[in-house]
C-alpha cells in the first residue's frame, strides 16, 4: 500500500501502474469534504515521491465517482472573510494542480456520477475513460456559484470555449455519448470494461505510445483564441445567457466573464482569477439561498428515505377520474414504470385522460428525449377502464374526481369496497378536509390526501396529508410511491387548504385588496414578476381558473373566517360573473390567443378596467415597495401560522413546499428565509405599517416574541 486513509487509498496494480481509489468510509457516496481533500493532498505527495509509479489510474469504490463538494461544509466556509476564502480556495486548487503535474500519465475511470468538484478532478487528469452509464457535469450555477476547483480554466482548454460556456452556464448533467462528442472524455466503454480500459491507457502512455505531456500542455497555457474570436465567443454568450438566466441569477454570466478574463493567462494565473470570481459569487445572498434550498431538499430526501423503510410496496396504482389531472397522474406513474389503472364513468373521460398522457409523450418524442417504442411502452402501462374489475390488484388508489365533498365521499366509499384491505386509498383534493372525507370510509387508517399540483408532469411537489386516523404506514407508503414516480413529497397535517393553498390564498386576498384600493392589476403582475415570481397574481389566477379560485377561496374563508373571509365584492367576482374564467375560457384578467406553437399567450384587455371599475376605488399609483410588501406580508404570515399550528413540521419543509408547489422565487430561499433575511424585527415592523388592512397583516404573538429576542427561523 502506497497510501491509506479513510477516503483515499493508493496501491500498486501491475507493471508500474498504481491505483488511487476514492472510497469515503461511512458515506454512501464520495464527496470532497475537508478530510478527503487533506487525504488527496497527502496521496498526491506520496505518489510524486514514489519513482516506482510509471502510470496512475483514479477509480471509485462506490457506485458513483464523486458527487462534488460537501455543500454543507463549504457553506460554513463561505462566511469567512473574502481574502481568507480566496486563499483557502487556491490551496485546494494547488492540490488539483499538483495532481495534474505528476511525473507520470494519469487516467481517471468515471464509473458513475461525476459532478462539480468530482468532474473537476477528472479534468485535472491527462485522460478520461467513462462508463457508458455514467454522467458528468458542472451544476454549480444551480447553487448560485460556478466551478471553483479549476472547472472554468480546464474545461474551455479541453473542449473549447463555446462548449465549456454551454456546460457551465446550463449546469446540466451529460451522458457519456454527449461527453465523448464534445471531447470532455476520451473513451467510453461498458462499465465492466472500465478499469481494464483505464489500465491499458495508462500503460500505453507510460510506454510512450501516447504523448501524455502533449495532452497536458494546452491546460497549462492560454486559450487558443485570437481577439476577434474571443470577442465573438464571449460577448455573444454573455448576451444570450443573461437573457436566459434573468437578473436574479448572476452566476452564469459571471462564469463567462471569468473564462474571458482568464483566456489570455496560463493555468496558475487563470486559477487566481477563477478563485476571486468564485468567492464573489459565494458571498451573494443568491448563493446562500440556493445552497440553503439544496440542503433543505436533502432534508426532504432523508425524511422520505426514513418513510421508505416502513412503507408497503406500491407496484401497481389506480387513478379515479381521467380528465386532465387524472391523465397527468397516469402519465407520471406509468412514465416512472408503475403500471396504473385509469378509471372514469364514461368513455369521453377515458379518451381525455389518454389524450393528455399521449400529448405529453409525443412532446418527449418530438424533442428526441424518448424513442417511439418507449412511448408505446409507457402508454401500455396505462390501463383504461370503465369498471372496478381489476382494482383488487392495486396497491395505491388516487381519487381525482370533481372537487365536491359529496361526490368524493360517494366515490371513496364505492372504491374502498373494491380494493384489497391492505391497499392505500388517497384523495387528490386541493382544499377539502381529509378528516371530513375520512367519514366516508371504513378504514380511515388506510386513507390520506395525495395532492398533486397542476400540471402534474412539471410541478415537483406532492402534499401527503395526514388525517387524524391515518397510520404512519399509510403515510410512508404514499411518500414512497410519490418518490418512485419522481415527485418530492412533503407530509403535512389536515386543515383547509393544507399547506400550499392555505398560504397562497392570503396572497390572492392581498391582491384583491390592492385592486379594491385602486391598483392596476397589470402593474401588480409586472412588479411581482420582477420580484421573482414566474407569473404575477392576476396571470396566476387566470391559469388556475377564476372559478376554481373562487371555490377554493370560499373553502378557505369558511376555515379561517377571521382573516380570509371578505366583506367586499372583488374584481374576481365581477370577472367570474362575466364568465371570464381565465385561460380555460380564453378570457380572465387577460385575453388569451394562441401563439405559433399553439400555446395560449396573454394579451392585455383594456375593457377589463371598465368592468371592474364599480368594485375598485379611483385608480392610484402604488410604489413597487408597497406592492411587494402588501402582497408578501400575508403570504409570509400564513407560512408562520402553518409552522406554529403544526401543519408542517419544520421551516425547511414549509419553504420547500412554496418553492416546489407555487414557484416561490428560489433565489429568495422561501417565505421564512425571506423573513430571516429581512430580519424578524424589521418584518414585524413592516406588518404594523399595514395594520389598518386587517387580520391578514397581523403578526402572531410568537413572531412578535421572536422579533424581541432576535430569534430566527434558520439558525445554521
TrEMBL record:
- The reply on keyword Lyase is yes
Show the catalytic activity: a (3S)-3-hydroxyacyl-CoA + NAD(+) = a 3-oxoacyl-CoA + NADH + H(+)
Q: Record's CDD domains?
A: crotonase-like
Keyword terms, alphabetized: Fatty acid metabolism, Isomerase, Lipid degradation, Lipid metabolism, Lyase, Multifunctional enzyme, NAD, Oxidoreductase
Q: Any idea where the 3-hydroxyacyl-CoA dehydrogenase C-terminal domain is?
A: 497-592
List each copy of the 3-hydroxyacyl-CoA dehydrogenase NAD binding domain by range: 316-495
Q: What class of enzyme is it?
A: lyase
Q: Pathway involvement? A: Lipid metabolism; fatty acid beta-oxidation
Q: Which family does it belong to?
A: In the central section; belongs to the 3-hydroxyacyl-CoA dehydrogenase family.
Record-linked PANTHER family: TRIFUNCTIONAL ENZYME SUBUNIT ALPHA (PTHR43612), TRIFUNCTIONAL ENZYME SUBUNIT ALPHA, MITOCHONDRIAL (PTHR43612:SF3)
- Protein name (database record): enoyl-CoA hydratase
Organism per entry: Spartinivicinus marinus
Amino acid at each position: 500500500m502506497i497510501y491509506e486513509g479513510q477516503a483515499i487509498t493508493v496501491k500498486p496494480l501491475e507493471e508500474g501502474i498504481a491505483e488511487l481509489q476514492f472510497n469515503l468510509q461511512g458515506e454512501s457516496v464520495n464527496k470532497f469534504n475537508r478530510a478527503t481533500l487533506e487525504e488527496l493532498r497527502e496521496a498526491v505527495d506520496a505518489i510524486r515521491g514514489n519513482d516506482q509509479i510509471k502510470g496512475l489510474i483514479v477509480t471509485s469504490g462506490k457506485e458513483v465517482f464523486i458527487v462534488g463538494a460537501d455543500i454543507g461544509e463549504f457553506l460554513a466556509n463561505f462566511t469567512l472573510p473574502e481574502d481568507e476564502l480566496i486563499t483557502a480556495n487556491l490551496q485546494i486548487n494547488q492540490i488539483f494542480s499538483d495532481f495534474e503535474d505528476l511525473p507520470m500519465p494519469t487516467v481517471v475511470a468515471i464509473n458513475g456520477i461525476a459532478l462539480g468538484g468530482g468532474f473537476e478532478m477528472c479534468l485535472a487528469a491527462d485522460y478520461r475513460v467513462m462508463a457508458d452509464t455514467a454522467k458528468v457535469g458542472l451544476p454549480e450555477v444551480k447553487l448560485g456559484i460556478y466551478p471553483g476547483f479549476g472547472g472554468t480554466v480546464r474545461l474551455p482548454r479541453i473542449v473549447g470555449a463555446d462548449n465549456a460556456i454551454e456546460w457551465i452556464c446550463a449546469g446540466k448533467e451529460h451522458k457519456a455519448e454527449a461527453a465523448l462528442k464534445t471531447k470532455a472524455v476520451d473513451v467510453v466503454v461498458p462499465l465492466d470494461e472500465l478499469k481494464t480500459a483505464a489500465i491499458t491507457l495508462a500503460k500505453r502512455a507510460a510506454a510512450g505510445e501516447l504523448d501524455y505531456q502533449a495532452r497536458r500542455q494546452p491546460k497549462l497555457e492560454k486559450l487558443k483564441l485570437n481577439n476577434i474570436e474571443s470577442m465573438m465567443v464571449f460577448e455573444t454568450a454573455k448576451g444570450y445567457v443573461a437573457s436566459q438566466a434573468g437578473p436574479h441569477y448572476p452566476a452564469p454570466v459571471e462564469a463567462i466573464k471569468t473564462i474571458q478574463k482568464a483566456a489570455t493567462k496560463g493555468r496558475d494565473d487563470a486559477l487566481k482569477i477563477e478563485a476571486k470570481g468564485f468567492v464573489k459569487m459565494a458571498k451573494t445572498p443568491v448563493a446562500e439561498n440556493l445552497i440553503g434550498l439544496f440542503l433543505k431538499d436533502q432534508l426532504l430526501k432523508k425524511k422520505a428515505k426514513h418513510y421508505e423503510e416502513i412503507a408497503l410496496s406500491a407496484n401497481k396504482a389506480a387513478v379515479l377520474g381521467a380528465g386532465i389531472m387524472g391523465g397527468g397522474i397516469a402519465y407520471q406513474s406509468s412514465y416512472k414504470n408503475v403500471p396504473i389503472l385509469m378509471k372514469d364513468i364514461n368513455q369521453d373521460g377515458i379518451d381525455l385522460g389518454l389524450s393528455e398522457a399521449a400529448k405529453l409523450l409525443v412532446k418527449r418524442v418530438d424533442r428526441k428525449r424518448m424513442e417511439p417504442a418507449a412511448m408505446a411502452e409507457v402508454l401500455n402501462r396505462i390501463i383504461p377502464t370503465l369498471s372496478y374489475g381489476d382494482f383488487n390488484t392495486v396497491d395505491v388508489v388516487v381519487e381525482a374526481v370533481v372537487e365536491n365533498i359529496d361526490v368524493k365521499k360517494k366515490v371513496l366509499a364505492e372504491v374502498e369496497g373494491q380494493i384489497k384491505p391492505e391497499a392505500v386509498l388517497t384523495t387528490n383534493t386541493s382544499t377539502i378536509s381529509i378528516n371530513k372525507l375520512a367519514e366516508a370510509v371504513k378504514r380511515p387508517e388506510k386513507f390520506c390526501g395525495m395532492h398533486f399540483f397542476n400540471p402534474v408532469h412539471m410541478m415537483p411537489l406532492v402534499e401527503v396529508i395526514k388525517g387524524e386516523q391515518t397510520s404512519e404506514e399509510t403515510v410512508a407508503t404514499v411518500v414512497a410511491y410519490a418518490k418512485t414516480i419522481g415527485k418530492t413529497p412533503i407530509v403535512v397535517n389536515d386543515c383547509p387548504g393544507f399547506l400550499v393553498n392555505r398560504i397562497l390564498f392570503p396572497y390572492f386576498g392581498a391582491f384583491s385588496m390592492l385592486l379594491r384600493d385602486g391598483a392596476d392589476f397589470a402593474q401588480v403582475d409586472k412588479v411581482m414578476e420582477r420580484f421573482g415570481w414566474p407569473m404575477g397574481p392576476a396571470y396566476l389566477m387566470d391559469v388556475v381558473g377564476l372559478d376554481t379560485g373562487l371555490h377554493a377561496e370560499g373553502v378557505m374563508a369558511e376555515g379561517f373566517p377571521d382573516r380570509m373571509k371578505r366583506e367586499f365584492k372583488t374584481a374576481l367576482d365581477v370577472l367570474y360573473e362575466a364568465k371570464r374564467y381565465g385561460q380555460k375560457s380564453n378570457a380572465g384578467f387577460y385575453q388569451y390567443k394562441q401563439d405559433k406553437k399553439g400555446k395560449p399567450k396573454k394579451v392585455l384587455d383594456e375593457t377589463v378596467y371598465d368592468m371592474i371599475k364599480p368594485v375598485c376605488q379611483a385608480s392610484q399609483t402604488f410604489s413597487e415597495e408597497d406592492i411587494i410588501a402588501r402582497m408578501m406580508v400575508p403570504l409570509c404570515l400564513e407560512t408562520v401560522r402553518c409552522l406554529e399550528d403544526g401543519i408542517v413540521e419544520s421551516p425547511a419543509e414549509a419553504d420547500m413546499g412554496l418553492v416546489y408547489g407555487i414557484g416561490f422565487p428560489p433565489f429568495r430561499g422561501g417565505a421564512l428565509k425571506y423573513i430571516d433575511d429581512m430580519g424578524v424585527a424589521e418584518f414585524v415592523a413592516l406588518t404594523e405599517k399595514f395594520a389598518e388592512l386587517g387580520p391578514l397583516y397581523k403578526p402572531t404573538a410568537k413572531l412578535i416574541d421572536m422579533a424581541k429576542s432576535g430569534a430566527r427561523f434558520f439558525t445554521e
